[in-house]
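User: Structure tokens for this complex, please. No commentary.
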Amino acid sequence: MRRLAPFAAAAVLAVALVAALSLGPVRLPAGDVIGAIGQLAGLPVRADAQALAVVGALRLPRALLAALAGAVLGLAGALTQGLFRNPLADPGVLGIAGGASLGAVSAIFFGFASLSVWTLPATGFVGGLAAALLVCRIARSDGRTPVATLLLAGIAVNALAMSLTGIVVYASDDRQLRDISLWLMGSVGGATWSRIWILVPFAALLLVGLPFFARGLDALMLGEREAVHLGIGIETLKAGVIACVALAVGAVVSCVGPIGFVGLVVPHIVRMLLGPGHRPLLPVSALAGAALLVAADTFARLAVAPAELPVGLVTAAIGAPFFAAMVARSKRRLAL
Amino acid sequence: MISAVQVGLRVGGKTLLEDVNLEVAAGTFLGLVGPNGAGKSTLLRLLAGEQRSTQGTVSISGRQVAQWSGAELSRCRAVLPQQSAMAFEIAVRDVVELGRLPHENSVSRAQNKAAVARALHVADVAHLETRSYATLSGGEQQRVQLARVLAQIDGVRTSALLLDEPTASLDLSHQHRVLHVARRLAAAGAAVVAVLHDLFTASLYCDRIAVVSRGRIVADDAPTAALDPSTVRSVFEMDSAWVDAGKNRALLAFKSDGGP
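Assistant:
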């Protein structure tokens, strides 16, 4: 089961991607979709011209942005839960989403957002990072960062960011309010190739750290002292996980808005299926997060066509019933 | 194997340990006994290289602990903490496998598996292998953690094993079993240090006993010499007598006036 899980998750993601590319106002057969991907990838195949245009210009960037964002959120969730030794933690506890929201909402309020397509993501990114740095600064003492203090500092910074965001929202006019609430719901509708390329290095950062993080977080399941006894450089591990999560989640949130649920629940579901070992958990959480967000975005495009729902509203609607079923199943297992 | 020379620890103006000299040779099972708050667990942390002393030096295999990297230490020294709560629902076998983490790149997968199997057996938790750690009793959890640290030093030529109250929540027969295992490991060449509260079992199994009182070592000798009734009287405020326990002698502590 554990050995096959990454392949199974990759297969689910592939199906979700093909579905995302073929479904929409123009329905494309899966064969045309695969042909179009082949030609875009430079393979010697000729694809249907309409399929090529729809896939290449519209659906592929959007599906890839959803996949990338979902992968980062799922993986970051698993990393955060491992670091805090707490299955209820998510990347939000570091204040990233709160800070990014404050940055983006302020950019809309002060009119920076209309200056260039990049000012909104840039202010969101800066806000997210600033919040994460503040959380670490508050929690740090004597060269150590106890995770319990980190959690409390995160609560304080999140509360502050939410209250400031609330003040900005209160002072906004009707047109700004609509922009702000749409942004806060999260959407991959603004997908462009350049946004994807900006996210790739951040996602790669997480990927490169993966083997090191998996080993350290496995030891950390026993406790901080126990991890030290097993030769883990605990402060390096914490700093590495926090820095990578803050950068990657900050970049994702600034591009697609604060999409909840994926980071909290995807690792949870994967842990129920595969156990808590991080070597399968981390990569499978990334693949499952990607699959969930791609599926959710496809549903968001189709549900109220020709309009579309913000994907942030849909992730929980799709994921929660599945999660509830898993909880009910594990409850029965524990009762036996 | 482990030696502490003139070791002291002051934290925030408070002296936790003072003037501690201790030598634990390979092949020795040393018991640390003393009242609550005397500094036993703190001393164990210093000996483990987990915390730095503010005075004096702690060395392992002749090299000061500050000069060891965490990874190097983890390949020859294991520590059993007083209690460990696991963060997630995890199977017993997976907990014990974590003990092999320091050796995963230097030893073959088959050897690591064999080490885990041996540790599960020695700690008498092999029958719990597939159970979830969270569903075990406190004593069973403690034995699983023991299996994890035994797995960590399995196959290591000169190892140090530091146990903080390894018998605390165990039933009578497992208390004896764990101390027997500790003594056998020492006989096979390990340096074993255990913080113990029960003077009866400590006197029965340890090669040597160090009595810690108010941050100092007040006696460090063979059990019969270290735990003489006058020391026990002054440190623990208890009366005591050496009695026959099978083929060995053991210390029985009691209150002769019947109460506190």
